[in-house]
Amino acid sequence: MQENATIQAEALPPATSLLAERWRVLKKNRMAYLSFWFLLFLFVLAIAGKALTDWFVVFNPQTVRLSETFLPPLSPFTSEIVPKEDAPVFGLYLLGTDELGRDVFARMLEGTFVSLMVGFVAVGISFTVGIVMGGLAGFYGRMRLGFLTVDSLIMRLVDIMLCFPTFFLILTVVALLPPSIYNIMIVIGLTSWMGTARFVRAEFLALRDQDFVTAARAQAIPEWRIIFIHMVPNAIAPVLVSATIGVATAILIESSLSFLGFGVQPPDATWGNILSDGKSFIFDAPWLTFIPGFTILVVVLAFNLCGEGLREAFNPKLKQGR
Amino acid sequence: MTNFIIRSIGQRLVLLVFISIISHAIIHLAPGEPSLVDPANPMMKAEDIARIRAAFHLDDPIHLQYAYWIRDLVTGELKSFKDSQPVLPKIWDRFLNSLPLFLIGTLITWFLAFPMGIQSALHRGSLFDRAGTFFSYALISIPGFFLSLILIILVVKTFDVPVIGMRTFGLEDSPLFFRSMDRLWHLTIPAIMSAVTGVAVLSRYVRSQMLEVIHQDYIRTARAKGLPEDVVIYRHGLKNALLPFITMFGLTLPGLIGGSVIFETIFAWPGMGRLGYEAILGRDFPVIMTLNFITAILVLMGTLLSDILYAVVDPRIKF
Question: Any idea which of A157-161, B34-38, B108-112 has the lowest mean pLDDT?
């Protein structure tokens, strides 16, 4: 009897936790795996950049050196007019200088933190609102509040929000409100949750009558648990795709707002406003356009590829080898 | 079903009233008034501002202002704050300019995205799939105006054609052929630019949706029955994969205004998006509100259509 059990245990593959299993799947997707580490590195860089630009004078992104304008990347610091303590780090303009002689490297470092924060806070707001709204509408859809069902109440709100052209609405509100980075994040977040809500609701409509939900109800599992532990993971695959695109979009929306002059205001630097300031000098100082442009491209690309990898890894319906 | 449609239309009319109230409120409650646009102008005296405010009903309580707006909108007498031109004809002109851009952009989007997405899903992991995925993501990831700048420089340098604006100034008397070629060149880059993001996003959705469907049991059953692969993919698979795109179809309509602000500004295309942008800069409230309102009507029609199609296509969903 005991012998039998040992044989069986040996025949089975070694037990792995769910997370380790997912991690293995993610690792197989080379691009996603690389992007994942790149993003981790970027978070460290963003926090380090925030600390360095705040506390160390060589990294100060707001130092203006009027005799040192439009120096191409990697030019050494040789000026005799500019005081020594305003010299860039290593005595070298790693990424050149802009029209006010500010060190583009230091500005990009500062921008890393600000741009990532805009992306994450905005998407955090939008997805929390979206999943809760969509989940409520899908699950409690038939419940009545006065003469309206919960479903029609929430979906009418979604419809109202969807009726405003998003970018135009963001632009209107941001242009009318006093310019502030927090307003931009909140406005982007509160105007982009409707897609998530609709996706989650559509999935919930099909899921709520399925057997595993009935089974969960039969076990008297509390409703919030059914919604968030049992149903949301089943409904979340399309939402995760749009989550990754969401971070991308938020960073891109910020840069578009900067392009139109309503983004994060100077002297604060984001990738978006470095790019839109630089575009006037595209022929004289192409690095002012191309450095932030390609940075945005690479970082947003990493978000997207990593998200795609995560989605495939965490989607039970797409298991490898089928 | 008829009941459902009638009820939806009724609901949407109620919705429209709420939308008009909200969009009126957002704009009037936010700080920044039309009379404050040019505070440094020495010609603007206090009594001038008072006169302007009275003329635009800006001193009345907000519900009265709302009533005036709706009355003027319905009778077609709504005038822009900026140049006292009637708002509706002004928007109609710009709409006619935006329409070709939107139509061509949408056509490019849908005709490229579906074949690309389906092919990627069917040959998952192939070179085409990986290259397609990578390039879609690259295209989503690049800021639109950055790509436009690069494209403008490239096209102008290689082909030596004008791309900014809708037509070349001074070509009005030339033969029809030259004029249409000119229009086409001016249309090409903005249309491509407004389709780029759409193609990338949509083909990703098509791919992930197809992948999900392809592993379902009924696909295996269809294959086991011995059906030809094309029938399995296009009749059994694609039909089920299309469900989420019914919603997306309704959601493309607001792109007519919102999606075009950036590109119309870059390419100096006198469309609705640019009109909206100019109106925001000038605090031209009637134009902003009416643009919002018109988009709302378009979108409501889109969602009505998608709800009806949802019920028709998916028997799991009952109303």
Answer: B34-38
Q: State yes or no: pLDDT of B296 exceeds 70.
A: yes
Task: Determine the distance from the C-alpha atom of residue B121 to the mean position of all C-alpha atoms in its chain, rounded to a whole number.
Answer: 28
Q: How far apart are CA B316 and CA B310, in angstroms?
A: 10
CB distance A184 to A260 below 8 Å: no
Helix, strand counts (H, E) of chain A: 14, 4
* DSSP-derived secondary structure letter, A215: H
User: Using CA atoms, how far apart are residues B310 and B302, in angstroms rounded to an integer?
Assistant: 12
ipTM: 0.75
Cα–Cα distance measured from residue B281 to residue B251, given in angstroms and rounded to the nearest whole number? 27
Secondary structure element (H or E) that encloses residue B156, with its range? helix B144-159
Residues in chain A: 322
- Which chain B residues are within 8 Å of A195, Cβ to Cβ? 251
Q: Is the pLDDT of residue B266 over 60?
A: yes
Is any Cβ of chain B less than 8 angstroms from the Cβ of A168? Answer: yes
Strand partners, A92: A76
CB contact under 8 A, A171 and B281: no
How far is Cα B292 from Cα B76, in angstroms, rounded to an integer? 16
pLDDT band at B34 (very low <50, low <70, confident <90, very high): low
List the one residue out of B318, B112, B295 whose CA is nearest residue B197: B112
Q: How far apart are the first and last CA of chain B?
A: 9
A307: helix, strand or coil: helix
Q: Say if residues A141 and B318 touch (Cβ distance below 8 Å).
A: no
Q: What is the distance between the alpha carbons of residues A107 and B115, in angstroms, rounded to a whole number?
A: 43
Task: Tell me the two tokens of residue B35.
Answer: 């009379």
Q: What is the pLDDT of residue A322?
A: 37
Q: What is the mean pLDDT of residues A139-161?
A: 81
CB atoms within 10 A of CB A197: 28
- Tokens of residue B167, six digits: 């037509």
Q: 3-class SS at B200?
A: helix
End-to-end distance of chain A based on CA atoms, in angstroms? 35
Give the DSSP letter of residue A97.
Answer: B
Amino acid at B248: M
Name the nearest CA neighbour of B293 among A168, A186, A262, A253. A168
Whether residue A202 has pLDDT greater than 70: yes
Find the helix packing angle between A194-207 and A150-163, rounded to 10°.
150
Are the beta carbons of B153 and A282 separated by less than 8 Å?
Answer: yes
- Check if the beta carbon of residue B163 is closer than 8 Å to that of residue B189: yes
Per residue in B191-240, pLDDT tens?
888 888 888 888 888 888 888 888 889 889 999 998 898 888 888 888 88
> Which of A252, A303, A317 lies nearest to residue B143, judging by beta carbons?
A252
- What pLDDT, in 10s, does the model give residues B72-102? 888 877 888 777 788 888 889 888 888 888 8
What's the gap in Å between the CA of B317 and the closest CA on chain A? 7
Residue B68 has pLDDT above 70, yes or no: yes
